[in-house]
Design brief:
Layout: E1 3-6, E2 20-21, E3 27-28, E4 35-37, E5 44-49, E6 52-57, E7 60-68, E8 72-79, E9 85-97, E10 102-114, E11 119-121, E12 126-131, E13 139-145, E14 148-154, E15 160-172
Antiparallel strand pairs: 1-4, 2-3, 5-6, 7-15, 8-14, 9-10, 9-15, 10-11, 10-12, 13-14
C-alpha cells in the first residue's frame, strides 16, 4: 500500500491533497485516516517514499545511450536476479544520427536462462532490421555477461548515434 498524501487538520500555506483523478473512474478522496492509496494491479507495482510514488510496469526495462564512431554501448543491462529460471526477452531498439538524419530500428528476440548467479543465452538472437543505408553497419543484439541481460548496440564510423531501447521480459522459475 502506498500513500499519496496525508491531509493536515489545519490550513497552511501548502495545499493539502483533497482528491486524485485518474484516466477513468472519477475522483478518489481520502479515507477516514486521510490516506489515498495507490495500489498496483496486474503487471504494475507501486513504491512510495517521502513525497514520491513510483509506478512501474512489471517486466519492462528502458534505456538510452550514445555511440560516437563504430563502438559499442550497453543501452540496457539488468541483473537476472538470484532465483534460477528462464526469461523470454523481446527488445525494440531505435538509433538516430542527426548529421545524416538517418534512422535504424531493430526488433530482437531471445531466451535467457539464469542459475541465479550466471546467465546463458538459450540461442542466437532473432533480429528484424529496418535501417537506412547510412546506418547499414550499425547493429543491436541481446547478450549476457555474468548474471546480466544486456542490450548492446554498435555505432557507425564517423557518426554519432543516439539510441533508445525498450525491453520486455517474461520470467518463470
Amino acid at each position: 500500500m502506498s500513500q499519496s498524501g496525508i491531509l493536515a487538520d489545519s490550513t497552511t500555506a501548502l495545499a493539502d491533497v483533497e482528491s486524485l483523478t485518474g484516466d477513468s473512474g472519477g475522483a478518489v478522496f481520502p479515507d477516514s485516516a486521510k490516506n489515498i492509496d495507490i495500489l498496483g494491479g496486474t503487471g504494475l507495482t507501486t513504491a512510495g517514499t517521502t513525497n514520491t510514488i513510483t509506478i512501474n510496469q512489471d517486466g519492462l526495462v528502458l534505456g538510452t545511450g550514445q555511440t560516437v564512431g563504430a563502438v559499442t554501448d550497453d543501452v540496457i543491462s539488468f541483473d537476472a536476479g538470484a532465483v534460477a529460471g528462464a526469461y523470454a526477452i523481446q527488445a525494440s531498439v531505435v538509433g538516430f544520427d542527426s548529421s545524416t538524419t538517418a534512422g535504424t530500428v531493430y526488433r530482437l528476440n531471445n531466451g535467457v536462462r539464469t542459475t541465479g548467479a550466471a546467465t546463458t543465452a538459450t540461442g542466437s538472437t532473432d533480429v528484424q532490421i529496418n535501417e537506412e543505408a547510412a546506418l547499414a553497419t550499425a547493429d543491436a543484439d541481446i547478450i549476457v555477461s555474468g548474471n546480466n541481460i544486456i542490450v548492446r548496440v554498435t555505432g557507425v564510423a564517423g557518426l554519432t548515434l543516439e539510441w533508445k531501447a525498450r525491453l520486455q521480459y517474461t520470467f518463470i522459475s
